[in-house]
Design goal:
Elements: E1 7-12, E2 21-27, E3 30-36, H1 49-52, H2 54-59, E4 68-71, E5 74-77, H3 80-98, E6 103-107, H4 115-128, E7 133-135, H5 142-152, E8 160-161, E9 168-172, H6 176-179, H7 189-198, E10 202-206, E11 219-221, H8 228-241, E12 252-253, H9 255-263, H10 267-274, H11 278-290, E13 294-298, H12 300-303, H13 308-321, E14 331-332, E15 351-355, E16 362-364, H14 373-378, E17 387-391, H15 395-398, H16 402-410, E18 414-419, E19 431-434, E20 456-457, H17 472-484, H18 492-512, H19 523-529, H20 536-545, H21 561-565, E21 571-572, H22 580-583, E22 591-592, H23 596-607, E23 615-618, E24 643-647, H24 648-653, E25 661-665, E26 670-678, E27 685-688, E28 706-707, E29 712-713, E30 718-719, E31 721-725
Parallel strand pairs: 6-7, 6-17, 9-10, 9-13, 10-11, 12-22, 17-18, 18-19, 23-27, 24-26
Antiparallel strand pairs: 1-2, 2-3, 4-5, 4-19, 8-14, 15-16, 20-21, 23-30, 24-27, 25-26, 25-31, 28-29
Bound molecules: iron/sulfur cluster (SF4).
Iron/sulfur cluster is lined by residues 13, 15-16, 18-20, 46-48, 50-51, 180.
């Protein structure tokens, strides 16, 4: 007789922006099976090998489950109280000796999909009050944030393609067939392209590599890395010459100034820079002009390059010129149920309010680029970094000139890490506070929820209990308390009071916000209706119920967190809608098309000589996610991922054959790997994946090679040399 009884739980996958709804089959506390949830309103059954590998991640014996400290006597397991005491005491001591800026914070990419951590780390960073705040954003999307800040006065105002209604999607430097979107949550991308084709639409991909997405496209422009701004300017000019200007329904300023600056870029000059014939650009302009609902989307290839901010800005200029911005079938601003009180309109940009004392690079949206981290550790003087608190990141692998950074981090007096693995960075930590496994935490897409291909409300509660370990939200509260009190451990009652204060603060701000569903209501009445369960879920509930779709705490029929938890397939909350006026935060309500920074960048672009010879670009594989998940059981089995890719003609010229070992080197560093040759890459381009330990892409990246306005590291378009070597990779 079979006595096994299994249960099913629901979990939104926290690994990437597909946000797949998963069905998890459990035998007791053992995960026995993971499937895509076909009833999920957002992901519709999508699943990739990484989602299945979550079970392996949960069980992985390498996962850290108890706090660790490292001191003169070595590495040892300690109690939670000892770990919190040590962390709080050391951080408070360094702050008191050198000032608040001596303690830096680094925020890693996994925090974006972890609501407890993404909300909790804000409490810690707020307590530390240091101007040395860094994150993986500056080796990723920061140029898009800065472009949005300049144009809309709102650094999070990044539109997504309305893929359900477009008839011409022009995509630059993105590979959603593998990534499932980035700053765009778009599971089942292949099916969406199939539907686009079925209604007569087209996909055009601009990428130096014939990626998995380019293979689905109607046209592929194999552009030289880092030259997208030239292509966009040529398109804007060509369309302008045909009489296409920014439609009058948009409230904009600076159009003439911008178009005048752009008009100096000649089509043939652009063609030479891009390695794309002028006629191809001309044809593309015609295609866009003739489309009924065109839309432009640019991602990682357009941001990790020397003109990332300019390129990101021009993507939206082209959307505007085509009348595609904030229009059905165009580039739309999504929404999520959790709502923060609306930020006030403002004159000042959140940019350049302070600078790195060493290189003078400006802050962007409150953070300095990670390219400044190493200089601020190495350089003595006021504001020198002496300690680091980091959350779920691995800067030793993911930041430029990573060997130099590793040495610099090793010199710090104190590193406090919140992570679930002993990564290359966590190995350097003096206190390692382990987070929970993805099955031990609830999931709400708090950071990226406004970038969905459709608007859906979803929340899944924890699948398994975390037993006696604190979840990441509580861990952050305890850490913040330790910094404030020089290492005292908060009692359960003190932590509860701390959380009550945060909940009350959020309610108060909503009550004061004229746009909130609970504007003008009685704070105590609202607090009386906030659910009794503790944790980050209480804040989520307040933000959801006070938002556009919320129940306004019983005043109307609407969303609550409880209702979302009871509907794990998700609740559809309406189509993407036009809402540009809500998004723009400049005091005059206009879009600024000619900020001085952008005009300067156009001149800089025109004066810059392109890199000659071979240039490096990144490559993504479905079985990895940045520097995470390496070695998780079952994921990389039998697949060689860490391989250099080279055009066969470039290889032949260098006496290289497929399967050879090669050394790739720059003035900064070198790596050795096997090579694959073929014709998928443009000539003069070499591709390599990032995030690997045995051959780390970032040892090749010079720390001072950045997108000038945002300080974002340039990882696409680095000039490299490659040489066949005898030793095996
Ligand atoms: S595509 Fe894979 S990694 Fe991404 S959310 Fe879905 S299952 Fe997870």
């Amino acid at each position: 007789m079979n006595t096994t009884s299994t249960t099913t739980a629901y979990r939104i996958c926290p690994i990437c922006e597909a946000g797949c709804g998963l069905k998890v089959t459990l035998d007791g506390t053992q995960v026995v099976h993971i499937r895509g949830n076909h009833d999920d309103r957002f992901s519709e059954g999508h699943l990739c090998p990484k989602g299945v590998a979550l079970a392996g991640l949960h069980e992985d014996p390498r996962r850290v489950r108890e706090p660790l400290v490292r001191d003169a006597s070595g590495r040892r397991v300690v109690s939670w109280d000892e770990a919190f005491t040590k962390a709080g005491r050391r951080l408070a001591d360094i702050r008191s000796r050198y000032g608040a800026d001596a303690v830096a914070t680094y925020i890693g990419n996994p925090t974006a999909h972890n609501v407890g951590l993404s909300m909790g780390l804000g409490i810690v960073a707020g307590t530390l009050a240091s101007r040395n705040l860094y994150s993986a954003v500056s080796v990723d999307q920061l140029p898009k944030n800065l472009a949005a800040e300049l144009m809309f006065g709102n650094d999070m105002a990044i539109p997504v393609p309305d893929i359900l209604h477009t008839d011409c999607l022009l995509m630059l430097g993105a590979n959603p067939a593998v990534s499932n979107g980035s700053l765009w949550m778009v599971p089942k991308f292949r099916e969406k392209v199939r539907d686009l084709h079925a209604r007569g639409g087209s996909l055009i991909v601009v990428d130096p590599r014939r990626t998995e997405t380019a293979r689905l496209a109607d046209a592929h422009l194999a552009i030289r890395p880092g030259t997208d701004a030239w292509l966009l300017m040529a398109l804007i000019n060509r369309l302008s010459e045909r009489g296409l200007r920014v439609p009058s329904r948009y409230r904009v300023r600076g159009t003439d100034e911008l178009f005048r600056a752009i008009s100096a870029a000649d089509m043939h000059e652009a063609a030479v820079h891009c390695g794309v014939r002028a006629q191809v650009i001309e044809d593309l302009a015609t295609r866009l002009a003739e489309a009924k609902h065109p839309v432009i989307y640019g991602r990682i290839g357009t941001t990790l390059q020397a003109f990332g901010t300019l390129t990101s800005f021009l993507v939206e200029v082209l959307n505007l010129q085509l009348g595609a911005l904030d229009t059905t079938g165009g580039a739309m601003f999504g929404e999520q149920p959790f709502t923060q009180p609306r930020s006030p309109l403002r004159h000042e940009l959140e940019y350049g309010r302070w600078r790195s004392r060493v290189s003078g690079r400006p802050e962007v949206g409150g953070q300095l680029p990670v390219a400044c981290l190493v200089e601020k550790i190495e350089t003595p003087g006021e504001g020198q970094i002496r300690a680091l608190v980091y959350f779920a990141g691995n800067p030793v692998l993911s930041n430029p000139d990573s060997e130099r950074l590793r040495k610099a981090l090793s010199s710090l007096e104190c590193i406090v890490a919140v992570d679930i693995f002993e990564t290359e960075t966590a190995e350097l930590a003096h206190v390692l506070l382990p987070g929970t496994s993805p099955f031990e935490e609830g999931h709400y897409e708090h950071y990226l929820g406004t970038y969905g291909w459709k608007n859906v409300a979803r929340y899944t509660p924890p699948v398994l209990p975390s037993n006696d370990r604190p979840d990441e939200w509580s861990l952050c509260l305890q850490l913040a308390h330790g910094v404030k009190t020089a290492g005292q451990v908060a009692s359960a009652a003190e932590l509860a009071a701390f959380e009550d204060e945060l909940v009350a603060g959020l309610v108060r701000r909503h009550v004061d916000d004229p746009e909130s569903a609970i504007h003008g209501r009685d704070v105590q009445e609202i607090l009386g209706k906030v659910g009794p369960a503790r944790g980050v879920e209480r804040l989520l509930d307040v933000g959801i119920r006070s938002g556009r779709e919320g129940d306004a705490f019983g005043a109307r029929d609407g969303l609550t967190l409880e209702r979302m938890a009871a509907t794990p397939d998700g609740i559809e909350t309406g189509s993407l809608r036009s809402r540009l006026a809500e998004v723009v935060r400049h005091t005059d309500g206009q879009l600024d098309l000619a900020p001085p920074l952008i005009l300067t960048e156009i001149h800089r672009l025109r004066a810059t000589r392109p890199a000659e010879g071979l240039v490096l670009t990144g490559r993504r594989n479905i079985r990895t996610n940045n520097s995470w998940l390496h070695g998780v059981p079952g994921l990389e089995k039998g697949v060689e991922l860490c391989v250099v890719e080279l055009h066969e003609d470039d290889a032949r010229e260098r006496g290289i054959e497929g399967g050879d070992s090669v050394c790739v080197f720059t003035s900064t560093g070198e790596l050795v790997a096997k090579v694959n040759t073929g014709t998928d890459l443009a000539r003069g381009v070499i591709a390599f994946p990032h995030g690997f330990v045995r051959a780390n892409y970032n040892v090749l990246a010079p720390v001072d090679f950045v997108d000038e306005p945002s300080g974002t590291s340039v990882l696409n378009g680095i000039a490299v040399e490659v040489e066949r070597i005898a030793q095996p990779a």
